[in-house]
Amino acid sequence: MHTFIDSPIGTLLATADERGRLTGLHMQDGRHPAPVPSEGRRDDSAFAELRTQLAEYFAGHRREFSLELAPAGGEFERRVWAALREIPYGETASYGEIARRIGAPG
Asked: Which of 9, 43, 63, 65 is the Cys-Cys partner for 1 at CB 3.0 to 4.6 Å?
């Protein structure tokens, strides 16, 4: 299932699996918007908690999200995403630093 969410950074495409776990959140207003899933249906009501948490985040009232995630991808991608989740609010990390953190500096 999927939905579109208006945000201060543009339109977001949110996708979830059949259990309602978030599988993706994509910025749609750039040069390379994510394709709308051909399988599944649009279900705006299924993303109420995501909408709430995003609104709180953009209002400056939330620094961490508490959503059930089910990202699709291989082992390498899952390691990258786990490393990204470890970056504290308001801080940044370079591609090289993330690569070193996951043991794949090349």
From this structure: 43
